[in-house]
Amino acid sequence: MRLRPSTSHWGAFSAAPDEDGNLEVVPHPADPAPSPLLGNLPSALTDPTRVAAPAIRRGWLERGPGPDPRRGEDEFVEVGWDHALDLLAAELLRVRTEHGNEAIYGGSYGWSSAGRFHHAQSQLHRFLNAFGGFTSSRNTYSTGTSAVVLPHIVGSADDVLRNGSSWPTIVANTELLVAFGGVPEKNVFVTPGGVTRHHTPGFLAQLAERNVEVALVSPLRADLPGQLDAQWYPIRPATDTALMLALAHTLVTEGLHDRHFLDRYCTGYAQFERYLLGSDDGVPKDAAWAGGLTGIPAAHIVDLARRMARRRTFITVTWSLQRIEHGEQPVWAAIALAAMLGQIGLPGGGFGHGYGSMGDTGDIGPDFRVPHLPQGINPVKQFIPVARIADMLLNPGTRYQYDGAERTYPDIRLVYWAGGNPFHHHQDLNRLRKAFTRPDTVVVHDPFWTSSARHADIVLPSTTALEREDFGAGRRDTHLVAMHRIAEPRAQARDDYAILAGLAARLGIEDAFTEGRTAREWLRHLYGTWRDNLAHKGIHVPSFPDFWEAGGFQLPNDESDRTLWADFRADPVTHRLPTPSGKIEITSARVASFGYDDCPGHPVWLEPVEWLGGERASRFPLVLIANQPHARLHSQLDVGAVSQAAKVAGREAVRLHPADAARRGIGDGDLVRVFNERGACLAGAVLTPDLRPGVVQLPTGAWFDPQGSLCVHGNPNVLTADRPSSQLSQGCTGQHVLVEIERFAGEPPGISVTRPPVISRAREM
C-alpha cells in the first residue's frame, strides 16, 4: 500500500485504501499538532450518503421548472449524465433568454475543497462568467460584519484579518492578554485551503509557560485552553460592548488614557468621550452601569481597566462577537479601547481580531499567493450580502440598505450551488426551506446527500478531494501540497471541472471555459505560470514533475516578527491609514452620515433582541450559543467517525449548566427538545459547570433533518433568527438565540440524513 499526499482545510496528510477498501490516513510529518478531524476522512469514500448518479427531483422532471413546495420532500429519479446535462443546459438557456443573467444566483459559498484548481466556487464562477454572468454574493458568514465596518475604522479589513500581529510577537511581549470571546483552540486546526504545520497550539502552550496573564471574557470556559491559568469573566452573552465601554470610562475618569496617542493617531475621540461620560444622554457608561448589563461586578471591571493600563496589553476579539446583532460595536469598541491605552503598533500590545477563530490568524507562515484558477470577469454587477439569500429569494424587488447605499433584491429564477451547504450556514432554516421553494430551478453539485442536495431539483454527484488531482495551500501555509488521487471516483461521480466542461460544450462556451486543457494540463499550466513569476523575483521553485513526485514544496520565508500597524505608529504621515482622515476613526463621519440607528458613527451600546436582558427572555429564558463544532469543520463529514463519536444518542450534544438542568428535570445524557417560536431540535444533554448559568451551547453543523418544524438531528439554525447585524453590513447574526429546553418524552423519531432520500431509476439508465 503506497500512501499518497494530499491536504485538507484541517491539515495535510498522506492516505491510501487498504486491501479491504478502508482508508488509512497519516498526518504530514512536519505537523507538530495534527488535527483530530483527519479521523473523519475514512468515511468520505464509501459512506452510504454518497450521491451515486445524477438525480432529478421527480416533480421537476415531470412538470418542468417552477416554484414548488415539494422541494426537500419529493423523491428523486436517477438519470444518465447526458440526460442530466442536456436538461440543465436547456434550463440555463431558458432562464438567460427569458429573464437575463441577473436571474441566475451563483451561490457556491462554502469549503468544499482545499484544492486551488478544483475549488468549487472558482470553477462555478468561471463557468457562469463565461455564460454571461450571474448575481453573486459578497462577504462571508464568518466575518461579514467586520469586513464592512473595519474599512471605515482603520481603512482595511484584510490588514486586521490577514496580517495581524504574529503569535511569537505576542508570546514574547504581551503581559496581559484580554480575550473577548477567548481563544478557542478547537478552531485553530482549520485554515481555508489547507494547513501543513499547526503552530498555534504550541504558541498557546508557550503563553502558559511564560505565565502570561490572561483575562477570558466569555460565557464559556472552554473558549480558552485549560493549560492557561486565566481569570474568567463569565459575561452575559451579547454584552461585551458594554464591558468595553465601561473599561474605557474607567480609563477616562482615572486619567489612564493616552491623550498623545489619541491626538496624533486617531480622529473623533472627543465625541466618543462625551458618549462615555453621558454628557448628551445623561447615562455615564461606567462600571456600575455595565455591571448590571454584563453580570460582571463593577469592582472587577475597574480592576481590569487599571491592570490593562499598567501592562503591555493585547486585546483580541473573536469573530463570534461580530456574528450577533449590532456585531459592529464590539469590534469598534475594542479598537477604541486599544487606542485609549496607546499601545497600538507596539509589539505585544494593541488589537487583534480572530485569534482562535481560524488557524492562520497570528500564524508565522508566509503571506504567499499560490497557483489558483482565474474566475474571469462577471459582467453582472448585481450582488447581495451573503447572509441575505433568504431575503432575496422571498422578496424580489424589495429595497434594502447596505454600507451607505440603497440596493434592490433581484428576481432569482435559478440557484446554482457547487460546494458548500446553505442549510448549514444560514439562519432560521424553516424560513430558508420556504425561500428555496421560490426559484424555478435549484442545481447542486455535491458528493453527499446533504440538506442542500435534498432541497435541489438537479443533483450532480461530484468527487471528493480524495478522488482527483490538485494542489493545495492555505493562507500562511508553509507548503504547497501536491494532492494526489487517493482513490477512484465513487460510482458515477465526476469532478466539478468535468461537469461544467460538459455543460460548457452544450452551451457553446467550451473554449472560454476550458481553454482546451484537461484538468492535469490546467495543473501544469497554473503551476508553470506561478513558477515563472517567482523566478523573476529570484525564487527557485522545482519543476512540476519534481514537485509532484516530491509531494509538495516548502514555501519560502515566514513572518514570525509581525506587529499590526507598526509602520503607522512609527510614521502616521508616510504610512497613513486608508481612511478619510488617514487615522483610526473612533468616530466615522461617513458612517454617521448614513443615518443608521442600528449603527451610528462611533461605538455604542445597542440592546439586541436575542439577549437575557430583553423581553423575549421571559418566554425563552436561556441564551443558546451556536458556535463552531470541535468534531468537524462546519457540516463537513458529519457522518465521519470523529463527528459521530461526539454525538449523544445519535444527536448533536447540547451543553448546559447543572443548575439549569436541575430546574428542568434534565439528566446527563437525556434526550432534550430545544425550542422557540421559529422551530425546535432534538439534542443530547451534557451537563457541565464550565459555562455561565442561563447559557447553553449547541454547535452548528449537524446535518439538517427536518420533520415538520423539528430538526431531529440537532441543528441549532432551525432556532436562530434570519436577522442582519445592521443596515451597514447586513452580516450574519447566528451566534446567539434565545430558547427553552425540556426533557423529551416518548419514542424519539428516527434520523434520516444518514441514508439517501427515496430514489428511483429512469428507464434510459
| Strand portion | 15-25%
Radius of gyration: 26 Å
The dominant shape is: globular
Q: Which structural class matches the secondary elements?
A: alpha/beta
What's the helix count? Answer: 25
Helical content class: 25-40%
What is the quaternary state of this protein?
Answer: single chain
Q: What is the averaged pLDDT score?
A: 96
Strand order, largest beta sheet:
6-17-18-19-4-5-32
Largest sheet: 7 strands, mixed
As residue ranges, the low-confidence spans are none
Distance between the termini: 35 Å
The count of DSSP E runs of length 2 or more, i.e. the number of strands, is 32
Descriptive key words:
765 residues; alpha/beta
How are the SSEs ordered, and which strands pair?
Elements: E1 4-8, E2 11-17, E3 23-27, E4 55-57, H1 58-63, E5 76-78, H2 81-99, E6 104-106, H3 120-130, E7 136-138, H4 144-154, H5 157-162, H6 167-173, E8 176-180, H7 200-209, E9 213-217, E10 231-233, H8 240-253, H9 259-265, E11 266-267, H10 269-277, H11 287-294, H12 298-310, E12 313-317, H13 328-341, E13 350-353, E14 383-385, H14 389-394, E15 399-402, E16 405-408, E17 414-418, H15 422-425, H16 429-435, E18 441-446, H17 451-454, E19 458-461, E20 470-472, E21 479-483, H18 496-507, H19 510-514, H20 519-536, H21 544-550, E22 552-554, H22 566-570, E23 584-585, H23 589-594, E24 622-625, H24 641-645, E25 653-656, H25 658-663, E26 671-676, E27 679-687, E28 695-697, E29 706-707, E30 710-711, E31 736-743, E32 759-761
Parallel strand pairs: 5-32, 6-17, 7-14, 8-9, 8-12, 9-10, 11-23, 12-13, 17-18, 18-19, 24-28, 25-27, 27-30
Antiparallel strand pairs: 1-2, 2-3, 4-5, 4-19, 15-16, 20-21, 21-22, 24-31, 25-28, 26-27, 26-31, 29-30
